[in-house]
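Marked as duplicate of an earlier ticket. Keeping the data here for the record.
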Amino acid sequence: MHVTPLHTTPTRRGSSGGATRVTEYEFERLTLSRDFSKSFVTRLLVDRAERGGWELDRVRVLHDGTRKVVLRRKIIRQRAAYA
């Protein structure tokens, strides 16, 4: 299993008030060998979702059976406390 480093990507999403707010996500890319069973991959992804807050963004199965998986999660920024 190969994991590439995390990176962040800002994504714009409109709100009902007409103003546009920016939601930032961080992404994790996994490359899983064809040697891993479907049930193992499912358990791995469920574990990452439950413990790390990741959600499945996309899965691509290559012609040789290798799975390329992209997971994402929101970046929650703390606002500065004003006195």
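See parent ticket for discussion. The helical segments are 38-52.
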